[in-house]
UniProtKB/TrEMBL annotation:
Top-level lineage group: Bacteria
Classification of source organism: Bacteria, Bacillati, Bacillota, Clostridia, Eubacteriales
CDD domains listed in its UniProt record: ABC_DR_subfamily_A
Name of the molecule in the record: ATP-binding cassette domain-containing protein
GO molecular function: ATP binding; ATP hydrolysis activity
Stated family: Belongs to the ABC transporter superfamily.
Length: 325
């Protein structure tokens, strides 16, 4: 649905987005993640046609945003970081205004009523936007993005500045919208992306440093399979048993959590599944496997690792460039 090739944006001499390429499939919910200043908003603004490209191409459903901006923009609903609301309008006036602005051809009353029901603002339809809470204003921002029934929704930091309850409500709304749209969610809040996205792209200093599912990111970067096992019985001599299991590369005692049980960390080689041999070995030696859970890296850990790796890479390149000069 979205095809991005070799996209670059320069602000004068500053390279804000550096030769990035990625696809978003029809119906996919993509998290676009990165620290402040990474180039997220710049990328979103280029995809939505608000900002010109320095080089590269962006196609929405096969339509080139630069060659045919009007047709491409019809396919996109955009909620920028600062929603373009007119505070002195009522919700009704504002959504009708957006409807006219977009040249929407759908039956006006039914279409707007449907949107208000979906984002749950029907009870505030006649109220001035300036009198609404931040959470409700954000819903109005989402509503304007939905006018015209676009196939693609792009939401830039939709929960920034909201209180915890409002954040949960907007996240639930994003989840609902993700079922019927191709959606890009830009954020620097990891749990948010993890909660709603099937795929994650991490951008740092204008470069893509990861493009994968949340599970794969966590799995691949940890470089091994780590488990936390609670073992019952005479656990004091369990370590040699664990270490003798084929493909276990590390095992150690973490601590005693129950009267006759202890927790062990077990790390196996990547690509091997030691859960069954583990069970058999323990049972064979008279131990009880009381619990087994994966200890994958959190997205938080991964994010820090990716962003710092990309910084190291950049400073290496900078040294190389200095040497070349
Ligand atoms: N109009 C502009 N002129 C010059 N530099 C800009 C302009 N807009 C953004 N930048 C710079 O480009 C880089 C990318 O900015 P961008 O706003 O896309 O990042 P971001 O990932 O969206 O960050 P944030 O989460 O803080 O909004 C930053 O270094 C920023 O300072």
């Amino acid at each position: 649905m979205i095809e991005i090739r070799n996209l670059t944006k320069m602000y004068g001499h500053k390279r804000a987005v550096n030769d990035i390429s990625f696809d978003v499939k029809d119906g996919e919910v993509l998290g676009f993640l990165g620290p402040n200043g990474a180039g997220k908003s710049t990328t979103m603004n280029m995809i939505t046609g608000y900002l010109s490209l320095t080089s590269g191409t962006i196609k929405i459903d096969g339509i080139d945003i630069m060659e045919n901006p009007k047709e491409a923009k019809k396919l996109i609903g955009y909620l920028p970081e600062l929603p373009p609301l007119y505070l002195d309008m009522t919700v009704k006036e504002y959504l009708n205004f957006v409807y006219d602005l977009k040249g929407c051809k759908l039956p006006r009353r039914e279409h707007l009523a449907e949107i208000c029901e979906l984002v749950k603002i029907q009870d505030h339809y006649g109220r001035l936007i300036k009198n609404l809470s931040k959470g409700y204003r954000q819903r109005v921002g989402v509503a304007q993005a939905l006018v015209g029934n676009p196939k693609v929704l792009i939401l830039d930091e939709p929960t920034v500045g909201l209180d915890p309850r409002q954040i949960i409500e907007i996240r639930n709304l994003i989840q609902t919208l993700g079922k019927s749209h191709t959606l890009i969610l830009s954020s620097h809040i990891l749990p948010e992306v993890q909660a709603v996205c099937e795929k994650i792209i991490v951008i740092s200093k204008g470069n893509i440093v990861a493009n994968d599912t949340p599970d794969n990111l966590s799995h691949n970067l940890s470089g091994s399979n780590k488990f936390l096992a609670r073992i019952g019985g005479d656990f004091k001599s369990a370590l040699p048993v664990l270490r003798a299991i084929p493909h276990v590369k590390f095992a150690d005692l973490l601590g005693q959590k129950e009267a006759d049980a202890a927790d062990f960390v077990i790390e196996s080689e990547l690509g091997s599944d030691v859960r069954r041999p583990l069970f058999e070995a323990l049972a064979g030696h008279g131990y009880y496997l009381l619990g087994l859970k994966p200890m994958e890296l959190s997205l938080e850990d991964i994010f820090m690792q990716l962003v710092s790796d990309s910084n190291e890479l950049r400073s290496d390149n900078a040294h190389e460039e200095e040497k070349a000069v």
